[in-house]
Amino acid sequence: MNMTTIPPRQRLCVLGSTGSVGANTLDVAARHPGRFEIVALAGHMRVDELFAQCVRWKPRFAAMGQPAQADELARRLREAGVATEVMHGPQALRELAAHPEVDTVMAAIVGAAGLPPCMAAARAGKRLLLANKEALVVGGAQFMAAVAEGGATLLPIDSEHSAIFQCLPEDRSQWHQRIDHIVLTASGGPFRTRDPATLGQITPDQACAHPNWVMGRKISVDSATMMNKALEVIEARWLFDLRPEQIRVVIHPQSIIHSMVVCRDQSVLAQLGTPDMRVPIAYGLSFPQRIESGAESLDFLGLKALTFEPPEPARFPGLFLAWDALRGPHGTTAVLNAANEVAVAAFLNGQIAFDAIHRINASTLEQVTPGLALDAPVEALLELDEHARAAARARVSAWRR
């Protein structure tokens, strides 16, 4: 698929449509009648939300995680007179991502579960809007190889990676000539100024109350620990073909500068905007053009200050695991991601304290040493993922408040 051409009417598959990124994707699409056709929507467990989306958009296909939810959705759609074919399970996601009637795939499934459909879309040469950072964290080398082999167009949707992408020339062959290093910005989350000694007292609701962004619970916790930034460091390594030392992180509480490219001549290119995910989504949907996103304009006269701070290891120890994992044996980043998914779920379920998330992640990395080749199949990555999850679950079971 040519990077500079898009079909006049894009046929969209939105994986993770009931989450915040999926809902914002549909919001942007709704602002441009006739430009987008919603062919497929996929949620996980939220039947009510996916039912409402199907009634609104009348996609040809819809998918849910489990058979029971799929059966309920199919029944309600029949009663509503909506002729959407309902599917379920991981295989359905792979089929929809590679479906010949789909031009563009918004990959917004949270976690390692997003890797197989992302691989399917890449191999099928789709225009792939990547909001699932775990696809690169778990399967970086394999995923980028699939993109190249399938001729897919890969467009980052995370606000930070979209910012870097927007600061770089369209010709990827020029990237290495331009970049000295990149700077990913982080808000610092809700506990940026909190005493690190009190982190064990944090509740799930407090961790999910992000000061700038509206996100799902898992990614909100990741933002609070800055593990989201650790995953973004790993993602950036693959997206922009960088060495670990070329990726830096700075805390920017206002979330106005979304990330920066420091060029070889030390010029700094930055992308600015209000903290609204519809901006990178609209850019991904319309690249190389730009369309209206629905976001508010940035009011420079209303900005009191733009400030920057270093991330403190005592408060955000998880961030620094990113560079350790990148320098470890191939597959180490997959172990880190798996451990974190287990630890965050345990925290949200009240099984462990907030500050135990990092301890479980670090101890799982010490216990599980991968030995995968760079060209290991996806099945091997998923086996490693499950092995790491089992080790992390054992750590959770052994942990006591």
Write the SSE topology.
Layout: E1 10-15, H1 20-30, E2 36-42, H2 47-57, E3 61-64, H3 67-79, E4 85-88, H4 89-97, E5 104-107, H5 115-123, E6 127-130, H6 134-150, E7 153-156, H7 159-166, H8 175-178, E8 179-186, H9 204-207, H10 217-225, H11 227-239, E9 247-251, E10 257-263, E11 268-272, H12 278-286, H13 321-327, H14 332-348, H15 356-367, H16 378-398
Parallel strand pairs: 1-2, 1-5, 2-3, 3-4, 5-6, 6-7, 8-9
Antiparallel strand pairs: 8-10, 10-11
Helix pairs in contact: 2-3, 4-5, 5-6, 6-11, 6-14, 10-14, 11-13, 14-15, 14-16, 15-16
Write up this protein.
The chain has 401 residues and is of the alpha/beta class. It has 16 helices and 11 strands. It has helices at 20-30, 47-57, 67-79, 89-97, 115-123, 134-150, 159-166, 175-178, 204-207, 217-225, 227-239, 278-286, 321-327, 332-348, 356-367, 378-398; strands at residues 10-15, 36-42, 61-64, 85-88, 104-107, 127-130, 153-156, 179-186, 247-251, 257-263, 268-272. Strand 1, helix 1 and strand 2 form a beta-alpha-beta unit. Helix 11 (227-239) packs parallel to helix 13. It is globular.
